[in-house]
UniProtKB/TrEMBL annotation:
Tagged with keyword Signal: yes
Claim: NAD is one of the keywords in the record: no
Native source organism of the sequence: Pseudotenacibaculum haliotis
Protein known as: TraB/GumN family protein
InterPro entries, sorted: TraB/PrgY/GumN_fam, YbaP-like
Signal peptide residues on this chain, from the entry's feature table: 1-20
Classification via CDD domains: Tiki (cd14789)
Keyword set, alphabetical order: Signal
Amino acid sequence: MKKITAIIAFLLITVSTAFGQKLESTTLWKITGKGLEKPSYLFGTIHVTCDATLSDKVKEALDQTDQLVLEIDMDDPTMQGKMMQGMAMKEGKTLKDLVSEEDFQTIDKLFKEHLGMSVSLMQNVKPFFLLAAFYPKMIDCPMQSFELELMKVAQKQKEEIKGLETVEDQLQVFDDIPYDVQVKDLIKTAKDNLAHEKETIKKMLKIYKEENIEAMLDMMSEESSEVTSDYQNILLDNRNKNWISKIGVYAKEKPTFFGVGAGHLAGKNGVILLLRKAGYTVTPVK
């Protein structure tokens, strides 16, 4: 169970729907203007992948910057403890409060088959994170992490690693989205034994490899998840807006490499257009 909760604590995926002006196909963007003495860089990651190898252009951008800023400060030694503590549902709710006995047994079967444990051991965990426990099972390879690769470079270069938000900020998102909405995706996944999620991630990985951030958002807009379609203001928009002033502060301090989920980049309320609206010049790095 400890291993499973550690995996969940690490996995916070980002999703969105597409709208707004079309952006070039690249996951790396240069931030200049508005009084910045040197450029900073914005990189879109994907949290579930088979290959987190950093491209030459990303390595070059890392060499040109002096600090790494991720969604949260992932080298904070208290991070994992805070996440494990904050994954529990509020007011003592459990999975059995949210689903029928039949659906509970279907979910329990999924846990036993793929994780070798009963969901009863984790039934106080927010449904989103119960589903996240299966991400490593949705790809046919050992899961890798862009965030960890970025951190290795920053640590080698003896640079600071910081965050755009706190662990508590991220966890609050999954209290603001109703638990009974979150659990619907878990039930669907259990009923088809991961089949749909496997196909979705396979398609997303292909799109990510092409660096087509617009197509990634188009794909997510076609998905049937209520969490994605009905709560993108909580999942993405509000967070993106909160990040803009923080990005400005960090970039003014020193040249900074920002690494956030690629789902945060595009769209009217995506980080790229919000930065441009704030007066920065944000250009694609091909």
